[in-house]
Each structure stands twice: as C-alpha cells, then as structure tokens.
C-alpha cells in the first residue's frame, strides 16, 4: 500500500521504487513503529479523533501485529511496502479495515521515523552498555588470574619497563569504562521524544506531547518541531561512541596478536577463536582478533558517511536522512559482535608466564632502576642516565643482562655502585617501587582490581 497515491497519475518506475524503498533495512524498526503507533492512538483519543472504543480496537490489532513481528520479523521482507511505516499501517488496515486509516491523523512519517529510530537507539544503548560491562568483567577476571605474570611493557614497541599482564588488562578496563560513560551520556541527550512534531511545523492537534513522551518511556518531549524531525545527533553520537569503542577493541586485538606471535610468544589463544591455514599445517591464526581489528574500519566509515550525509542539509526533513540507518545498524551490530568476541577470546587465553618473565628480564627493562639507584646516591639524574647508558652498551656487548655484570664491572661506570644494587635490579623490585596511584606495584594492581570489581558488581 502506497501512502501517497492521490496526487500522482503515473506509477513509480520500478527502478525508482527499488532505489527509494527502505523496507529492506528499516524493517528492523517494526517493533518501535508499532509501539509508537499505540501511543499515538492514545493521544488521538485525547483530541477526540478516536473514541476509546476505536482506540482499543487499534491497540489490540497493533499488539497482535507486534507479537507476529516478534515471532518472525523476516516476514516483513516479503512485502513490497515502501518502508516500515507503510507496512505497519497497511497491516493494520488489513486487520481492522477502515478504522486503521484514521491512525495517521496529525502524524507524519517524519516525526514517526525520528521517534522510531530514537526508540531503537535507546534499546541498542542498553545492549551495548551490558556488553561493554561484560568485557570489563572478563578483563578484570583475567587480571585477577594474572597478577603475578610479569611481562615487558613497551614504548615504541621497544621493551621499556616491566609490567604485569594484570596491569595490561586493567588499562583496557579504563578505556571501556570511558566507552561506558560515553554511552550513558549519549543516552541522556537522546532521551527526548520527537513524536507530535508533525511533518516539520508541529501537529495541528492539541496533543499533550509531554504525556505522549512519557507513554513511550522518554524523559521529555523535544522543544522545536523543525529540529525534532531533522535532528540525527543521536546517530552521530552513537556512531562516534562506536568509532572510539572500536578503536579501543582494535588496539586490544593488536596487542594480543603481537603477544601471540611466535616472536613474542606470551600467550596461547584458544582453538575456539583461531583457525588453521589451508596450506601450512603448523599454523594457528588469530582470526577473531584480526577481524576485530579489521572491522574497526567499517565503523569509522559509517561515522564519516553519516557526517557527510548531514553536512549542508537544509531544515527540515530531507530524504537524504533515510541514509541514517544502514551505516548505524551495521556499526552498532559490529561493535556489539566485537565486544562479545573479545570476551570469548579472553575466556580461553593462556598467559605463558615463564616466557613473559624471560622477555621481561631481557631488553634492559631495569635500566631506569639503576639510574634511580645512582640518583639516590646523589648523582644528578641526567648524569646517572648517561652512566647507565654506557653500562647497557657494555652489557649488550657481552650479551648479558645488567644484573649479570660483576660489581667490579659495574663500578667501572660509577664507583658509587655497591653490592646493594643487585636486589634493586630484580624485576620484583622494579614492580614494587611503582606504588603511587595507577602504578604497576602489586598493591596498586590489587586495589585497582577490587575497585573495578565493586563498580562492575551490579549485573
Ligand atoms: N523511509 C523514510 C526514512 O527512513 C521515512 C520518512 C519518509 N518521510 C517522507 N517525507 N518521505 O527516512
């Protein structure tokens, strides 16, 4: 059923119809469209367009339709309706006859689609929030199990100072906590109902839009009808949230891909999230992680695409805005999938402690400690830095660690170095000393784990 045939004498070209129709993707808004329609029918009673009895009939039919849609959303795709709004209205008219034709009084697809999309976004935010929290919990659990797994920390992908696998996990917990807070923030601004804004200038029926908003579970109603039907900030914000969240997941994936290389060999990934090569029998590829890293691209693309679609659009609604859906749907689906997949990856990960420890012991990760030791003996840091640099060159020349140099050898670089230097050079001492807030000292890591657990405890 086309909603607008009256003014036209020629049928739409089949190719234009294909091009113009949005049902193949906006069918995902079916539930929201029906729920919005029930609320609108209630509003129409308050302005005497519908009687109580008529509204009841519509509501019953709409609820039946809702059940049908929930049972089998794919059935919608069999129809040649233009979009989900026409589909719902058409099905309603099939069910209740002429009465169904009253529902669209005072409403436009412009305020309708804006409302549907916001209702959908609100649901997605909740799903995403719970997935972001689930991944944080998985990271905290992994941290807890690996507090004593010492490994090299990197800057410039050069071994820099020792950290623990737990500390690495907690870094990602922080990123995800910010993702969580961004989503909550997005939700606050998005929670405003456009319904009752009409096509652009407001509805001609004196509907209590605040009450209507409340029926739909929105915090309030929008203030300006022109803005209401043309605002897609919530799509932009959610896409930005997704784009940043995916950057985090992509970095997480890249770190683990590196830890999993034959060269680093710090972790073993589960068979459940890796796959083999069709040619090389020895291989076990980190496909889940590579896909997480790779899918980051399409999400950035969706954000940029939406920005460009909205840029320079005149007020109010334009058909360009129909382009808001596919990228948003895909980006949020992708983010959600990648969050779930990251949990799965952590679930089966094995940290190879001896190998991590060995790597942390190599690479002169304790050079800073030696410099700090000299500082404690009264040598200015810049000078101490230089002395240690020379000691490192000598150790590299002999192919040994700093702590493997004899005291006599060390004293050639500075007579201030004494026997008490050796404990200072141990990995454990490197960790223990970083005991200011946020540092890698076991005590700090333990309290960070406890704090994160408390924050994430309510399920
Ligand atoms: N399918 C349209 C969309 O997604 C619905 C709104 C159509 N409004 C209009 N005036 N043609 O944006």
UniProtKB/TrEMBL annotation:
Q: Where is the Argininosuccinate lyase C-terminal domain?
A: 364-431
- Give the pathway: Amino-acid biosynthesis; L-arginine biosynthesis; L-arginine from L-ornithine and carbamoyl phosphate: step 3/3
Keywords from the UniProt entry = Amino-acid biosynthesis, Arginine biosynthesis, Cytoplasm, Lyase
* E.C. code: 4.3.2.1
CDD domains registered for this protein in UniProt: Argininosuccinate_lyase (cd01359)
Q: What is its main location?
A: cytoplasm
Task: Indicate whether Cytoplasm appears among the record's keywords.
Answer: yes
User: Under which name does UniProt file this protein?
Assistant: Argininosuccinate lyase
Q: Which gene encodes it?
A: argH
């Amino acid at each position: 059923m086309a909603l607008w045939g009256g003014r036209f004498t020629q049928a739409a070209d089949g190719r234009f119809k294909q091009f113009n129709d949005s049902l193949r993707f906006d069918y995902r808004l079916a539930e929201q469209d029906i729920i919005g329609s029930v609320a609108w029918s209630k509003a129409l009673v308050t302005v005497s367009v519908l009687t109580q009895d008529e509204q009841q009939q519509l509501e019953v039919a709409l609820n039946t339709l809702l059940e049908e849609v929930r049972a089998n959303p794919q059935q919608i795709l069999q129809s040649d309706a233009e979009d989900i709004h026409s589909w719902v209205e058409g099905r309603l008219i099939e069910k209740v006859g002429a009465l169904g034709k009253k529902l669209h009084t005072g409403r436009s697809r412009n305020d309708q689609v804006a409302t549907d999309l916001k209702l959908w976004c609100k649901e997605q935010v909740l799903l995403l929030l719970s997935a972001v929290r689930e991944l944080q919990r998985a990271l905290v659990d992994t941290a807890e199990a690996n507090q004593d797994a010492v490994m090299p920390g990197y800057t410039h992908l050069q071994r820099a100072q020792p950290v623990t696998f737990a500390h690495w996990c907690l870094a990602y917990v922080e990123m995800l906590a910010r993702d969580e807070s961004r989503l909550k923030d997005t939700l606050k601004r998005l929670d405003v109902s456009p319904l009752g804004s009409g096509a652009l200038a407001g509805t001609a029926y004196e509907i209590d839009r605040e009450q209507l908003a409340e029926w739909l579970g929105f915090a309030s109603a929008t203030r300006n009808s022109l803005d209401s039907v043309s605002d897609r900030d919530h799509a932009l914000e959610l896409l930005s949230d997704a784009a940043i969240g995916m950057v985090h997941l992509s970095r997480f994936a890249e770190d683990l891909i590196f830890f999993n290389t034959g060269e680093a060999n710090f972790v073993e990934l589960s068979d459940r999230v890796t796959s083999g090569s069709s040619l090389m029998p020895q291989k076990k590829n980190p496909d889940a992680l590579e896909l997480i890293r790779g899918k980051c691209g399409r999400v950035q693309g969706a954000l940029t695409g939406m920005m460009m679609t909205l840029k320079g659009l005149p007020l109010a609604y334009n058909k360009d805005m129909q382009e808001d859906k596919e990228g948003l749907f895909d980006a949020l689906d992708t983010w959600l999938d990648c969050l779930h997949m990251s949990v799965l990856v952590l679930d089966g990960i094995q940290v190879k402690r001896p190998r991590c420890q060995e790597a942390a012991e190599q690479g002169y990760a304790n050079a800073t400690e030696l410099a700090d030791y000299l500082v404690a003996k009264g040598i200015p840091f810049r000078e101490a830095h230089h002395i240690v640099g020379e000691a490192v060159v000598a150790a590299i020349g002999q192919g040994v660690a700093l702590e493997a140099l004899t005291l006599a050898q060390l004293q050639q670089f500075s007579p201030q170095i004494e026997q008490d230097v050796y404990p200072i050079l141990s990995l454990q001492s490197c960790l223990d000393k970083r005991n200011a807030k946020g540092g890698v000292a076991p005590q700090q890591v333990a309290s960070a784990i406890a704090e994160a657990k408390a924050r994430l405890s309510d399920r």
